[in-house]
Structure formats: structure tokens, C-alpha cells
Amino acid sequence: MCEYFVKADPIQYEQRTRSVRIRGMLTSIRLENMVWDVLAEMAEDEGCTTNALICKLHDEILQHRGEVPNFASFLRITSLRYLRRCLITMEKKHQPLTDSDNVSTNDLLPMSMTGTFDHSVARTQAKPLAAVKT
User: Fold this and answer.
1) What is the pLDDT of residues 46-55, one digit of tens each?
2) In the chain, at which residue ranges do the beta strands (DSSP E only) sit?
3) 69, 83, 93, 98: which is deepest, by most CB within 10 A?
4) What are phi and psi of 133, to 5 degrees?
């Protein structure tokens, strides 16, 4: 199991800082490249830019919680929850599976052969954020 994870391309977990204007204030957010990629996919699904999605998430978490103590961590968890929702959606689509289906566990994962997330699969499976109540 660990071999799959340790062979990940280091560029995926390399951090990158981007400037985002939230409520008129310019702020810097430092996230791993893979998180930025997932946020970009989420934004595409929502029909907006990554910056617009980040602003929307910031406004909604402020409205819901009243504060955002660690916004970068919130964005990481948001991207993980998005990927998890994509996986659950795909699993539901493939259930019930029987032994005669000849489907391996890997067939249920939205991963490409290189071990990176296959956004084209997730895009066709996931509902827009606005349509999902969590």
C-alpha cells in the first residue's frame, strides 16, 4: 500500500502560494499543487474561477461558523471532501456489484494510470456544490 503513496510525483505535494482578493483584501494562500488542482476542478464544475470559488467558500464558512481560524486547512479538507464525494458517487453508481461483474477496486477509483486524480471521471459523476447538502 505505501509504495503507491511514496511514488507520488513530488510536484503534487510541493506547495505554491497564490494571491487571492477576498472581500477587497489581498491575501496569500499556500497550498499543495494537488489541492490547487482539485480546487480548480471544483471551480470548473461550478462554472467559475478558482479565485471566485475560494471567495465563495470563505464567505459561506464565515456565515456558517462566524470565523475562519485556518482557511488553508479548510480548503485542504474541502478538496478531500470533494474527492470523497466523487468516490462515493461512483461507488453508488457501480453497486450492487457481484462476483460475476469482474470489477476490481481500482475500477471504482477516479485515478489515472499515473496515480493522479482523473477529473474527467469525477466531473461526470459529481453533483455541483450548490446541489449537495452536507
Assistant:
1) 999 999 999 9
2) 15-22, 25-32
3) 83
4) -100, 125
Grid cell digits, residue 47? 462554472
Is pLDDT of 63 > 90? yes
- Say how many Å lie between the first and final Cα of the chain, rounded: 30
Residue pair 79/126 in contact by the 8 Å Cβ criterion: no
**CA-CA distance, 110 to 133, in Å (whole number)?**
22
CA distance 65 to 68: 7
Q: CATH for 9-131?
A: 1.10.3990.20
Report whether 69 contacts 58 (CB < 8 A).
Answer: no
Entry pTM: 0.68
Q: How far is CA 93 from CA 62, 63, 108, 118, in A?
A: 34, 34, 9, 17
Query: What are the boundaries of each domain within the chain?
Result: 9-131
In the block, which residue shows the cell 494571491?
19
Do residues 82 and 70 make contact, with C-beta atoms less than 8 angstroms apart?
Answer: no
